[in-house]
Amino acid sequence: MANAGQGSLKATLTVSMSNFLEAGSIVAAAGGLTLWVNYLNLSDASVGLLGAVSANGFGSAVGAFIGGALVDKYGRKFIYKYDLIVYMIGVLLIALSLNFGMLLTGYIVTGIAVGAAIPAAWTYIAEEAPAKDRAAHVGYGQLAWSVGPAVMLFLAVLMAPLGLMGSRIIFGMLFVIALITWILQQQINESTVWENQKKEDSKAENVGKKVSIKELFTIKANRKAIMLVLGIYFFWNLVAGVMGYFMPYIYQVVGGLTPAHANLLQGTLWVFTILSTYFVFIKLGDTLNRKLLFGIGAVMGIVAWIILAFGSMGMTQLLLFIILWGVAAGFGAQAFYGLWAGELFKTQYRAKVQGLMFGLVRVGVGLISLVVPAMITFLGFKAAGVVMIIFLVIHLIIGLVLAPETRGKTLKEIEEERYGPEESGIIEEEQLDGL
C-alpha cells in the first residue's frame, strides 16, 4: 500500500508540472507586458486583446472545451501525448516574436494548450488520490500552479536589465521545461478509476448506455455541483484572472512602480500563496471543516481588495494587499475548484464537465480582459476595484451556502451519497480506499 501511495504522489507531481507551466506562461506574459507594449507601441485595445485570447482567456477556454471531451473519451493520460507539444510551439512563437501577429498567435496557441490540460490534471489528481488525502494531493497541483508564477516573476526581476530579451529568454526556458515535463509524463499510468469505469461500460448489460451531457442539467446533483463549483470559481477568477495577467501592469500604471519592482511585489505575493497552499490547504484540507476554510480565505481576499481599491497604493497598502491576498489564494476558490470538481461528478463526465466549467470561466476572464485597460484609463482604478470586490462577495455567498462536506470519503461514497445507488456507476479499486 505504501508503494502504491508513493506511486500515486509521484504521478500527481508529474501531472502537476503542467500546472507549473500553465500558470507560469500566464504570469511570464504579464511580467513582460509593458516591454511588449513599448516595443510594439501597443494600444489599450491591443493589450486587452492579448489578455483576452491568451492562456488567461479565450485561448484556454477553447482548449478546455476540447480537452474535457477528449479526456473522458480516450483517457486522462491521452492529453499528455500531445498537449505540451502544442504548448512548446506557442511559447517558442512568443519567444521569437517580431511583430504583433506573431505575438498574438503565440498567445492563442499557448492558451489552447493550457486549457486542454486543465481538465486532465485536476481529474487525474482527484481520481488517483487516496480518499483521506485527496485535498492534500489536489493541493500539490495548486502548489505547482503557485510556484510557476513565483519563479517566472523573480526571473523577470533578474532579467530586467536585459529588457525585452529577458522576456524572450524566460519563454525559451518554459520551452525547455515543457520538453522535460513531456518526457516524464509519457511514463505515468492511466487513471485506475477511468480504466475501471471503461471496463464496467463494456459489460454486456451496459453496452449502448451512453452518458449524455444533458444529464449535467437534468440531474439535481449535477445542477447543485455546477452552481457551487462554477459559481465560486467564475466570480473569483474574474478577479484572479485580471490579477494574473494585469497586476504588474496595474502596479506600474496606477502605482507608479518600475517593471522590476512590480514583478518583485507580485512574485512575493505568490510566495505567500505557496506557503499558504502547503501549510493550510495541504496540511489541513483533509481535517478541518472545508466550508470554514473556504470562508476564511474568501473574507481575507475581500479585505485585501478593499485595502487596494480604497487605499493610496502606498507601500504599506501594497504589502498588506499581497500578504492578505497571497495567503488567501493558497486555500481559495481555485484549490476548492480542483477538489470539488473532482469529487462531485460521475467518472463518465468528470473531465468533460470540468472542461465546460473551466472554459466558461476563461470566457468570462477573456471578456473582462478586453475592457480592463480602458476601464482603468477612463473610470479609474477605484471603480474597477469596486467591481472586483462585488465579484468576490458573490463567490463568498455561493460557497458558504452550497459547500458540501466530503472529507475522508471515497469517490464512490460521494457519488452514491449525491446520486443514490442506482445513479452511481463509479468503480474504484479497494487499494484506493485504503491508502
UniProtKB/TrEMBL annotation:
Keywords: Membrane, Transmembrane, Transmembrane helix, Transport
Cross-referenced InterPro entries: MFS, MFS_dom, MFS_trans_sf, Sugar_transporter_CS
Membrane topology: Multi-pass membrane protein
Compartments (UniProt record): Cell membrane
Residues annotated as transmembrane: 20-39, 45-71, 78-98, 104-126, 138-159, 165-184, 225-247, 267-285, 292-312, 318-340, 360-379, 385-403
Chief location of this protein within or outside the cell: membrane
Gene3D superfamilies assigned: MFS general substrate transporter like domains (1.20.1250.20)
Domain of life: Bacteria
Major facilitator superfamily (MFS) profile domain boundaries: 11-407
Entries under Pfam families matching the protein: MFS_1 (PF07690)
UniProt key word ATP-binding: no
CC per GO annotation: plasma membrane
GO molecular function: carboxylic acid transmembrane transporter activity
Entry protein name: Inositol transporter-like SP family MFS transporter
